[in-house]
Amino acid sequence: MTVPFLDLQAINQSFGQPLIDAAADVIRSGWYLCGNQTAAFEAEWGEYCKMPHAVGVGNGLDALRLVLQAWKIMFGWQDDEVIVPANTFIATPLAITQAGLKPVFCDVNQHDALIRTDSDYLDTLVTPRTRCIIPVHLYGQLANLTEIYQFAQQHRLQVLEDACQAHGARAIYNNNVRTCAYSFYPGKNLGALGDGGCVTTHDETLAQLVRMLANYGQTKKYVHDYQGINSRLDEMQAAILRVKLRRLDADNHRRQQIAAFYADQFGSNQPAAVQDGTHVYHIYPYLTTDRTTLQEHLNSCGIQTLIHYPVPCHHQKAYASEHSKVFPNAEYWCSHELSLPISPVLTDEQAQFVVKSVLSF
Ligand SMILES: *Cc1c(COP(=O)(O)O)cnc(C)c1O
Asked: What pLDDT sits at residue 6?
């Protein structure tokens, strides 16, 4: 038996004719950008996320960056500081840097790899220049929103949720001031057939400004109030996403089922399964002190695994000025995490084989 890490071919095949019809409709329509499909997807995604505004953009990095650029304009920020966890995909700090802001890396929890909110940890990072905090819903699990929004309120900070791995994770918390950035990179829980992204928010002013900035800073055709960029969700991707959105809850449920099975089989030295809907298991992280040999063993069994992420952001060459910082938990996850196969098309037999192969190691 072979178990690919993520079989995108099988996933997209499983949507059958409706996906092909959606693409054919766009081809026939003669309209490929800023049209009905994108508008319809934005409306459907906003409703699905229970957010009044959704703005399609080119990718997840731009979703993050455009929100920061819009806030910079709205609030008159300069080269101010943004708090961000040290173990995330590089796009999160890059969005900060590209918006002309300064990332201030922080540590994560030992038990779940999410941004630390215990005791007064975050308070120690705040300076007079701090403007924003970006919790990352890493692996598909929501960060502790109650504590993060409370912290932000105390220090008058904006909160930008990096939800690029957490499509459909259900927030118990809701305060009507949320802003989330999504990516529809093909491998995400809701994935396009190319690049795509979206900003969802309660703030109408922010939504309008992001829309302008993503479309050349244009207020109307050939009138440019801002130095914007070109970052739009196209009609083809929107049409594809509309079909795939209809199955997102069912797909996430299947991921949660597999995760519950894994966690049950692996027992107490692995993170317990999260079963309240706040985790959509984009990634199933397995922690091991023997990662290289376990990965080789699984590979020889025909099981593909990946590492999320092998190098924390503050150790990347791109952030050389941060190399002296120490974030023990972020570094722990980066040196012990192995991502096991999990997806809506993973079969029970495959999941059992993964467990058997891991436990036989
Ligand atoms: C995928 C991802 C992004 C970036 O999304 P792109 O669409 O590839 O630009 C940002 N943050 C996190 C946590 C991600 O997983």
From this structure: 98
